[in-house]
Amino acid sequence: MLRLEGIGKRFGGLTALQGIGFTVAKGSITGIIGPNGAGKTTLFNIATGIYPPSEGKVLFEETDISQFPPERRAQLGVVRTFQNIELFGKMTVLENVMVGLHTQSSSGLFACSLRMPWQMKEERRIREKAKEWLEFAGITDLADVEAGTLPFGKGRLLEIARAMALEPKLLLMDEPAAGLNSRETAELAELIKRIRDHGVTVALVEHDMDLVMDICDALVVLNLGTMLAEGTPREIQENQAVITAYLGEE
Ligand SMILES: Nc1ncnc2c1ncn2[C@@H]1O[C@H](COP(=O)(O)OP(=O)(O)OP(=O)(O)O)[C@@H](O)[C@H]1O
């Protein structure tokens, strides 16, 4: 689904990544892990189009998207979530998902504000669709709550619902468990598995090892800008180089 080939990234004289190559298999939940400063965020930014790689290629379904900006990737089905949740705080939970759907709709926000009959119908369709995504994320009861007042964990679920409304083929998540307590993390884990079971491939950068080991089908371990290992969670847990890299950090 997503293939990285020989990815390198330099910031001035600093080599942040070198020779990174792996595939995110269709239908998988793939985790990218590694000690602090390993290059995870840099790799995530390259995969999502924040900046291009200094060398190598990002291929999505065999299309070279290395130079595509985030919007163009989203049109192809590569959608991301943010570590710092970016919601419209003054809008309700439901409206936040509706905004995402409007950007896809033929009429758009402006036309809908004119309230022509066919646009009203479109508006109703979008509202229904948005409700379905709230249900999917388990936050239906919060539909009319102002998004800015949500507890952090619910905000994250909303952000994911909004991303899912774009009907991605691949969802890239930047530290989805950051800032969540254990109950919220468990809720998140269930949602991410549901997303995979819904047919959406997931790749995530994450620090929470328990979560990663629980939900991921495959792991990629970065260390000091290079690839240290890849394999199943069990293989990674038993990998001596990985154990040394993590212990060396403490
Ligand atoms: N925009 C930038 N300009 C210069 N150096 C950068 C930039 N972004 C990252 N780096 C450097 O690249 C290296 C990898 O950083 P990166 O943030 O990708 O690691 P990380 O694995 O995400 O770390 P953490 O787990 O602490 O978030 C670090 O040495 C960092 O200082």
From TrEMBL:
Signal peptide: none annotated. InterPro entries: AAA+_ATPase, ABC_AA/LPS_Transport, ABC_transporter-like_ATP-bd, BCA_ABC_TP_C, P-loop_NTPase. SMART domains: AAA. Residues 2-249 form the ABC transporter domain. SUPFAM superfamilies: P-loop containing nucleoside triphosphate hydrolases. The keyword Transport applies. GO terms for cellular component: plasma membrane. GO terms for molecular function: ATP binding; ATP hydrolysis activity; L-isoleucine transmembrane transporter activity; L-phenylalanine transmembrane transporter activity; L-valine transmembrane transporter activity. Gene3D superfamilies: P-loop containing nucleotide triphosphate hydrolases. Keywords: ATP-binding, Nucleotide-binding, Transport. GO terms for biological process: D-alanine transmembrane transport; L-alanine transport; L-isoleucine import across plasma membrane; L-valine import across plasma membrane. The keyword ATP-binding applies. This is ABC transporter ATP-binding protein. The gene is livG.
